[in-house]
Amino acid sequence: MGTDVVALTNEHPEFYRLIGPFLSRREIERETGGRLYDEDGKTWFAAISDGNVVGVCAAVPGAVTIYQSDYVLPAHRGRGAYRALSAARAAAFPGRARAVCTAASLAAYLAGGFRETRRKGRFTVVEREPTGKEPVMPPEPPPTDTAPSGDPFGWLDELPEDQRIDEINDIRRRLAQHSPMRGEPVDCVLWLRQEQVHANAYNPNVVAPAEMRLLTLSVLEDGYTQPVVAWPDGEGSYEIVDGFHRNRVAREAKAVRKRVHGRLPVAVINPDRAATGDRMAATIRHNRARGVHTVDGMSAIVIDLARRNHSDKWIGEQLGMEPDEVLRLKQVQAMAEMFADREFSEAWEAC
């Protein structure tokens, strides 16, 4: 059987049955450079073969019609579906038009009367002026895409920020598959949406308000230097193993939430350690392996900062201490220095 093409908008009763499977698909987004959305006012064309939709394209009418959303299922490329779609769209919108096309579809656009105007990363902007002639049926594009030379990631700059983050996450995942360090969770830190990440039900760690304020200040001033550790517990869902309070900062501090675009840096632990007992043990290990600050060590830091002309108020704010704690630590070091050269007898002498 041949390929039939139907035109429809999102108001058509069959629209979501026919076009829906192509909307917001990651593999399509990666290839075309953008998600396929069902905006109002867009006219869609669906190529149907043997009762199945095998490809789509769309046009947004205006003074300059925008051609977009070109996609044919890989198994049906080179069989005439894209040629039929292009001809139907050109017949419906024969006037001035513009498109952003991939290397794979560029030849088809040029054969259809378009000309190159500029490059955008791995994409080419093409335009067509009205000629009054019948539309040309372009040749079928090759089944694979070839990115042009130059910056291989320049095309990311053309994407909306949220979509760009998802694309970079996907690139990191694929790179990690080839990394000699792929067994280490920190080798692939992903910026996941906060709603994808949730707390566990067994973490005994509690952070006092003063320490929570210090953690918030740390993230505000220094940024995220440690990812949240999580494991995948469902489709696109992750349970926190370590970093619940770092997660809280991103949710509760508006400035941080805005800065990280509602995301969290997440290192995903090895999925084969998914049993509840393994996860509980991992949480406790993370909590207890951090160690504590010694009094002498903290005292030396406080004295050093004071000698650098920092006020007690500044030291307290930056280290998350109350004023009396700063004073006590300064006194500890002062007492140690006062008696540093004194000799003490090993025992009391009896009278």
What would you say this structure looks like, in words?
This protein is α+β, with helices and mostly antiparallel strands. Helix content is about 35%, strand content about 20%. The protein has twelve helices and twelve strands. The protein has helices spanning about 15-20, 25-30, 80-90, 105-110, 160-175, 210-220, 245-250, 255-260, 275-290, 295-305, 310-320, 325-340, and strands spanning about 5-10, 45-50, 50-60, 65-70, 95-100, 115-120, 125-130, 190-195, 195-200, 230-235, 235-240, 265-270. A seven-stranded mixed sheet has the order 1-2-3-4-5-7-6, covered by helices on one side. The longest helix is centred in the middle third of the chain and has 16 residues, at about 160-175. It starts with a strand and ends in a 13-residue tail after the last helix. About 25% of the residues are buried. Mean pLDDT is about 80; it is low at about 135-150.
Which key features would you list for this structure?
single chain, 351 residues, alpha+beta, seven-stranded mixed β-sheet, five-stranded mixed β-sheet, 36% helix, elongated
Can I get a quick summary?
This protein has 351 residues and is α+β, with helices and mostly antiparallel strands.
Shape: elongated
Rg, rounded, reads 31 Å
Number of helices: 12
Number of strands: 12
How far is the N terminus from the C terminus?
Answer: 118 Å
The portion of residues assigned to helices is 25-40%
Taking the sheet with the most strands, its summary is:
7 strands, mixed
Beta-strand residue fraction: 15-25%
Task: Name the helix and strand elements from N-terminus to C-terminus, one letter apiece.
Answer: EHHEEEHEHEEHEEHEEHHEHHHH
Low-confidence stretches: 134-149
Oligomer: single chain
The overall average pLDDT, rounded, is 81
Strand order across the biggest sheet? 1-2-3-4-5-7-6
Structural class: alpha+beta
